[in-house]
Amino acid sequence: MTLPNRLFLLALFNFTLLLPAITIAADDSNSAKQLYTQYCSSCHGAQRLGGMGPALLPGNLSRLRKPDAARVIQSGRAATQMPPFAHTLNNTQTDLLVNYIYEEPDTPPEWTLTDIQSTQQIHFQQDQLSSQPVFQADLQNLFIVVELGDHHATLLDGDTFNPIHRFATRFALHGGPKYSPDGRYVYFASRDGWISKFDIYNLKTVAEIRAGINTRNMAVSFDGRFAMVANYLPHNLVLLDTETLSPIKVIPVNGRVSAVYTAPPRNSFIAALKDDKTILEIPYRAPFQVRSISTDEYLDDFFFDPDYQHLIGASREGDRGQVIHLDSGKAIATVPLAGMPHLGSGISWHYQGKTVMATPHLKEGKVSFIDMSNWKVIKQIDTLGPGFFMRSHDNSPYAWVDVFFGPNKDAVHLIDKQTLEIAHTLKPEPGKTAAHVEFTKDGSHALLSIWEDDGAVIVYDSRTLREVKRLPMRKPSGKYNVYNKTHYSAGTSH
Ligand code: DHE
Question: What's the CATH number where 14 sits?
């Protein structure tokens, strides 16, 4: 037998040995698909794009570990329509389903302008609703508190700290809700791409639309007319008319969008991409022409100086930030920032005659302070662990930073804004995650989340640090004050 023939037979032999495995794998995938069609598709959609239940695609499931997904299938999910399947599906079938939903679909899912339009729901016409609020409170000192535990939000009176109204939201909201400039409307984005418009004065969700399959965040223009939605899937930005949430334009981009923010002095939206070294700027006026700025690094996370002249961004993998002058599009500085700075959570304040920005780090227990006039790191301090969120207020002497990750997740540091040292460390409820602070309009009180399913929002007197009130809530995450957000207060997120 010639050598090529022998090699061919050997290959055939090896292939025959592999055959049963391949057949079993193909059977598995067929039966997994059948199981999916039989038990899951009516709620999660035939293409796994979501329906009454969330989308079941690898990108949408990236924060859920496979064993947890198996547990949800077997036991159901509290506070949702997801029933337990333990009596219907055995462990093998459950594992088949889990593996199936974590696999990329054979054909990449699409979500076209027509798909977006087909999901639009106008629950109430704006002119049918009163322009006067149906409750009494300082309309500028209201808070929206997002409760992730059972997918609700609470409207809170920022003077009395009494809840005014609690309402259902879409599943898994993420990112800060955005207010209209007058504070009457608040817009929410869910990880599954649903954008909801809630009329605070009338306590009603007035319009909804699904702008993407896997959404990062959204921004609302300074004049309140437009919303821009940043998506991971599809790879695009979607511009909406805020009145009805009708889509105006779909802007395809190269890869996933890291985030989009509004830049008020520039009258534009600014976005960066995770898979393309590019910043995009889109003005708030038709034809919404996109300007591209090339960068040296990928920008997973970014922040702006107060007048939106510069953007400081960093990649998740890198050990430095880069500063881009937005008008010229040129990189003007590199900032040494190892340990994954969470620049999106950055805040700034006046310190020794200049503006200083502070950022926690997601991989190291430290906070970095950067002089925004020369982009030098002027100080780094150690914390009890990596932090996620930072907040302050012009009237507060402290910048609050949580210790979101690790054994000290129950601690919160208060950094003295003039010494840049930790002045106090609070442990609001030992053993329970304490995170995310937001101030009242006048900065007199700070509201902090006990980020647990049986959690709470704790109201502190922001000077004496005395606990004033504790409101039980279901895994409260972010809290957003109307005045601070609509006035782009330097101590809060934008
Ligand atoms: Fe967030 C804001 C990105 C994981 C809770 N998060 C943001 C924003 C971005 C972002 C870009 C700013 C959007 C805005 O407000 O317009 N978040 C990311 C990630 O890349 C990351 C690390 C991974 C991911 O899976 O997306 C991530 N985020 C989380 C969580 O695991 C958190 C803790 C729980 C959750 O909701 O999923 C979480 N992110 C938040 C919150 C905000 C946020 C509460 C708004 C903060 C604010 O004060 O404005």
Answer: 1.10.760.10
